[in-house]
Every structure is written in structure tokens, then in C-alpha cells.
């Protein structure tokens, strides 16, 4: 089964947690100093917010899957659509361990497809910022950076 993923960059994390908790009728399941995440079943969405010194906006959209096989299928669809993709194995991003495939839609909106298989203690660095294109050949050691942007602990 698939779950829509939405990641929003916010100006004020505490205020935004209050707003989205009221909107969803539930507290986030994960809260960190710079991040919060709701895993909702109605609507079926992995909704995340972060305060990481970015302009408040939709950071990226994605589709979370339950198995590696589903990820391979979705990544194959992205490649078949003719867009440049970037695959990541065992990435540590957003306090989780995941395999991923990233792509920009034709207008530049970032999409992430991913299979999460564990938790992590660090947030790390995000993928390219809003409006930046996914790099065609990012270094293998870098889970969340472009060739011009060195990776830290990763998102």
C-alpha cells in the first residue's frame, strides 16, 4: 500500500505543530527540535514539517511504499517518464533510514519515492532546495546533496 508524503518548510515549528495537530485532530508521532511528522490513516499521508532555515513553502512531495519491490516499481515509472532520477540506498534522512528515488517533475517540483526500514538519531541535510534540479550523478557517498553541495549527516 502506498502513502502520500508531503514535507512543508515552516517559519515557526511550535506554532505549526499546533496548527497541524488541530487540523489533523492528532499530535505528531515524531517531534524533534527542527522537525515533526504525522503518519495519518485518514487521509493516508506521511505529513512532515521542518524549520531548517528555508523559505516557508512545500519542500517536496512524495510517495512512501511498504516494500522494496514497490519502490523499484515506482522508480521504474519515474525513469520511464524520461525525467532524470537519483537513487539513494540506505539514506539517513528526516530521522529515518530509507531507500529512495528522487525526481523533479517537468516544472521543477521535487518528488521523492521511498521505502523506510528504520529510525535514525539525526536529521541531516535535505535534498536540493525548492527550485533546484535533482543532479543526474550525485556522489554515492552523499545521501542528500548535489555535487556542488557537500553532504552532512543527511536528512
TrEMBL record:
<feature type="domain" description="VOC">
    <location>
        <begin position="2"/>
        <end position="116"/>
    </location>
</feature>
<dbReference type="InterPro" id="IPR049789">
    <property type="entry name" value="ArsI/CadI-like"/>
</dbReference>
<keyword id="KW-0223">Dioxygenase</keyword>
<dbReference type="GO" id="GO:0051213">
    <property type="term" value="F:dioxygenase activity"/>
</dbReference>
<protein>
    <submittedName>
        <fullName>Glyoxalase/Bleomycin resistance protein/Dioxygenase superfamily protein</fullName>
    </submittedName>
</protein>
<keyword id="KW-0560">Oxidoreductase</keyword>
<dbReference type="InterPro" id="IPR037523">
    <property type="entry name" value="VOC_core"/>
</dbReference>
<dbReference type="InterPro" id="IPR004360">
    <property type="entry name" value="Glyas_Fos-R_dOase_dom"/>
</dbReference>
<dbReference type="Pfam" id="PF00903">
    <property type="entry name" value="Glyoxalase"/>
</dbReference>
<dbReference type="GO" id="GO:0046686">
    <property type="term" value="P:response to cadmium ion"/>
</dbReference>
<dbReference type="InterPro" id="IPR029068">
    <property type="entry name" value="Glyas_Bleomycin-R_OHBP_Dase"/>
</dbReference>
<dbReference type="InterPro" id="IPR052393">
    <property type="entry name" value="Cadmium-induced_rsp"/>
</dbReference>
